[in-house]
Specification:
- The complex is a heterodimer of chains A (322) and B (438).
- By secondary structure, chain A is α+β, with helices and mostly antiparallel strands.
- In chain A, strand 11 and strand 12 form a beta hairpin.
- Chain B is mainly alpha-helical.
- Chain B is 72% helix and 0% strand.
- The relative contact order of chain B is 0.17.
- The chains are: A alpha+beta (322), B mainly alpha (438).
- At the A-B interface, strand 4, helix 3, helix 4 and strand 8 of A face helix 6 and helix 7 of B.
Chain lengths: 322, 438
Amino acid sequence: MGDHTKKERRKFLDNGLKLGIAAAIGGLGISKITSKLNANTEHNSGEKMELMTVDGTLIEVDSSEVMEVQHAEDHDQKYNVREGMPNRKFVMVIDLAKCKNALKCQQSCNKHHYITGDNAWLKVYKMQEEKDTAPYWMPTTCMHCDQPACVTVCPVDATFKRKDGLVLIDNERCIGCRFCMAACPYSTRVFNWSEPNQEFTLNMDMVNHQYSPEHSGMPSVKGTVDKCDFCPHQVQKNELPHCVTACPNGVFYFGDKYEDTVNNGEETVRLSKLLEEKAGYRLMDSLGTEPSVYYLPPVDRLVDFEDGLEEYNEFKSVDKPE
Amino acid sequence: MINYDVLLKDLAPKKFSKRGMTWVIFLVIIIVAGIIAYIDQLRQGQVVTNMRDYVLWGIYISNFVFFVATSFVGSVAVAILRLTKNPWRTPFVRIAEIITVAAIVMAGITIVIDMARPDRLLNLFIHARLQSPITWDVIIIPTYMVISMLLLYFPLIPDFAILKKHFEKTKPKWSKWYGKLSLKWTGSAAQKAIHAKSIAIISIMIIPVGLLLQTIDAWLFSTTYRVGWDSTNFAPYFISGAFVAGIGSLVVVIYVVRKAKKLEAYITDFHFDKLGKLLVLACLIYLYFNINEYVIPLFNSKKADSEHLKTLFSGDYSIPFWIVTIGGLVIPILVLLFKKGRKPFPMLIAGIMVVIGAWWKRYIIVTPTLMHPFLPIQGVPESWHSYFPSLHEWLITSATLAMALLIITLLVRYLPIIPIQRTMDEQEMFKTENIAEL
C-alpha cells in the first residue's frame, strides 16, 4: 500500500515536471515568434541601404534591419585604477646621510593629503639601534612592498597591489577591520577613528570631486584606513611626490625602476648606480616583503644629528590649525 | 529509583523564580546600556574606544577570541564524550550545547562590533578574497553556528515530544509549541535509528569544524609578522586554551543551574568529580603550551622577543600576566588535582578563576604585542603609547557577555536542561541490569 502510493506520487511529480518544462519551452517559443512577426509588420519599410562589410564588399540591406551596434569597450585603452600606469614601476630612494629632520616632507604630505588625524603618514623616526651606535633620522613612507602583507590579509580587496608597484586603498570598499594595520610591519597605516571633518577644519572643497584611490585623503573616510599613496596624482601631472619636492636637503629620490632613473628634484641619477655606490638597502628586507623604497645608509653626514632635535616632537606629527 | 513522574516534574521547564526574574532584568539593563553605547559608537566612530593606530585591536577582539574559545565546549564535552561513549556526560551535555550556541552566536556579533564599517558587512561576501584569514572566519563561524545549533536541537526532539504530552492539559499553548518542535516524534524504532545516526554524524562533524574554528582564530594572529603572534605554536595553543575556557564555563554554569533548579539528585558529586578531572587535564595541556610559548623563547631570545616577554614578566602587563597564569591556571590545577578539590563548591571557585583567567588571557595575547611594533612608536599623542579600554568598550563588552548569559538563561528556562528521554532510558537500562543480576 505504502509503496504503491509512493510510486503514484512519484509518477505524478514526474509528469508534472515534464509538463512544466514543456510549457515553459512552448511559452518561450511563442513569445519569440510573435516578436519576430511584430518586427516584420512594423518596420519593413522597403527602403534599401548600401553598406560596406569589413572586407570591403558592398551589400544592400533593408533599412529596417540596420541597427546601431554598441562598441565593445576597449579594455586596453581604458585606464584601470587597480592596474595602474602601464609599463611603470615606481620606486623611491631615501638618503639617510642627508636627512636632518627638517620635517618639510611631513608638513607637505600632511597638507596635500588633508590629514586631520594625530598620526602623520610620513614619519621621521629618531633611530638608534644600540647605545654605542650612531643615532640618525629615518623618514618612512609606505614601502609599497612587492609582497605586501596588508594586501594578503585584506578580506575584501580594499587594499590592492598594482602593476606599477603601488599599494593603494579603496576607501569606498574598506570595512574597517584593521587587519592590514596589524599585518604591516612598518606601522605605516593610519585609521580614521572619527569623522575626518576635512571640509570643516581645512576648508576643503569637495563639491565636484570624484573619489579615486590615486589621491588618498581626498577625502579621508571615517572608519577606513589611510596611508601614503606614493602620490600617483602627482605622477599623472608629470610632477614629483609632495615629500620629494618639499625636502630642502634632497633626501627623497623618486623614479621608475624600468627606466632605472630616480630624481630628487635637483638631479636625475641612475637607480642601479646609486644603490651600488652608496650600498643601498631595504628596511626589514629579511621579512620578505620586498619594499619599493630603498635606503642609503647614514654615512659621511654633512649635518649634525643634534640639529634635527630642534624639530623633533615625540608626541606630535600633525600640526593642527589654531 | 526515581520514577517517571518525579523525573518529569523535576526536569520539565519551570517558571522563573523571583531570583531568576531579577537576574534576567539585571542582564537586560546591562544589554540596554551596551546597545546605547554601541549606537554612540556607530554615530561617532571607533574614536569612542581607546584603540588607536598602534593598539589597533583591543578588548573587542580579545572578547571575540574568548567567545570563540568558549564555544569549543560543544566539540569537547559533548561530541568527544559522546563518541567515546562516556555515560557520565548525560546530565550536562545539554548545558554544554547551550553554552556552545550562546558563545558562537555572540562571537559572530562581537566581531561585527569591532568592524568600523558594519554598514559594509556585505562586502565580506561580495568582494570576498579567499586568501584572507578573515574570510576563513566568515566561512567557519556560520558553519560552526549551524552545526552547534543542530547538535543542541537533535537530541531535544524526543524531549519535546515528552513535554508536549506533559503540558497538554496544564499549558496547551506550550504543548502546541513543544509539539511543533518535536517534528512528530513518536519514538518508533525507525525514528530512533535515524535519530541516533543523525546525532552521530553531527557529533563527528563538529569535532573537525571546532578544531578548525580555533585554528583559524589563532591564524588571525599568527599570519602576521608581529612579535608574540608570529608563532607556529599558536593553533594548538589556542585549541588547548579553548578546551580550558569551555570546560571552565561549563563547570560554572552547571553549578548555578543545579542550584537554581535543584538538580542535586541528577548532577551529583560523581559528575563533578569526572568533570574536574577533565578540567585539570585541559589545564595541564594548556600549561604545557604556555611553557612552549613563553619559556622556550627565553633561551634563544631574539631582541624583539625578549622585549615582549619582559613586558609580560616584569613590565606593564606583568600584573595581569601573573594573575592569569597563577590564578587562572596554576592554582586551579593544584585544587583540581585533589579529590577534595573536585567537590562541587571548590570546583565552582576553580571554574570561576579559570573563566576570568581565560578572558584576561585573551586580552594579554592581543594587546601587549601591539605595543611592540618593529619601528618605535613616535609622533603620536602620549596616550597612544598605552591602552586600557574606554567606558564605551567596557559597556559594549559587558553587554555582549550579558547577552551570552541571557541566551543561556532563556534556553535553560525553556528547554529541559537534562535530557529527559536519555535519563529515562539509562535508568531503565540500569533497572533491567539490576534485575538481571538478581
